[in-house]
Design brief:
349 residues; single chain; two-stranded antiparallel sheet; two-stranded parallel ribbon; 17 helices; mainly alpha
Amino acid sequence: MLARVAENLYWMARYLERAEDTARLINATTMLLMDMPRGASFGWDDLLRVVGLDKAFHQYHDEASETAVMSFLIQDERNPSSIFACVRLARENTRTFREVLPRESWEWVNELYLYTSTHLTSALDRRKRFDVLNEIIRLYTSTHLTSALDRRKRFDVLNEIIRRRQAVVGLLAGTMSRDEGFQFMRLGRNLERADMTTRVLDVSHAINVPYQSSEAALQLNLPDLIWMSVLHALSAHQMYRRHVSVHARGHKVLAFLLNDPLFPRSVRHCLHEIQFALGELPGVEPMRHLQGMLDQVDHANYRALANSGLHAFCDDIQARLAELNAVIAQTFFRAAHSHNMTQSQFSLV
């Protein structure tokens, strides 16, 4: 397969996954905002740091307010990792190389783009933002992001985006031959998913509960609410209850989302998917980088991480994923990098 085609398929999968996972991250934040005790605040700068966009945001904004941050993450095209930008880039990659994809995939990705374009403005409202993001995740998005700024509206819009993006993924999974093109998409999707799972876990650091609100926080059992929101953000709640516990305890949630071999959004499962895809492709160097991460999640002390050190642990996983991304690019896409700008420059990792 030509390096340029392989790279575009890899990045199409990453852009679609990033659009969905950003929607999930925003919806998790929205749910936390609704459950926080009176007097507690959310550190929007911390959220930007979680996704690695704090410096980019402050190039255009002085203050990290909820409205400004949501707009930047959802629809601002100056942010190449915004939901709208990711859906647009995925659409462009699909259009350019649609001859190697099932015919219907272009139609569905284009529908996702059109939906995102139409609904994202309303998603900036908190209520609609949730549904818009889920819809972006389902189709991978463009028409509905403006409405996402209101909390309740953005929740609905993001959920619809999520559903539409998932429809695209289901179509590709059910109709695409398991050739090299599929393996590059598998690589991109799971590398992006592993990275964003660690970022969703890191959201808890953005919650600030002042002393006067600590009693209310204890009454609400805020730590359990936070872990419950994390599980819901990754559509992991039901599987966690089935296989682990009915109670959302920090160390158990971490072990499930980082090291469970069966849940498709756990970091370990994503790494196994990457391992399988690499096994179907030539080149051994990426596999060597992968093994260190598998050992890291396998030997971590999750009870200790639930109390302290989670942020540093997630940062380290993200750095290792960035290194793996660079090795994949060097191994498989080097011939495509004669262009002035490569798609990897838009990567979070």
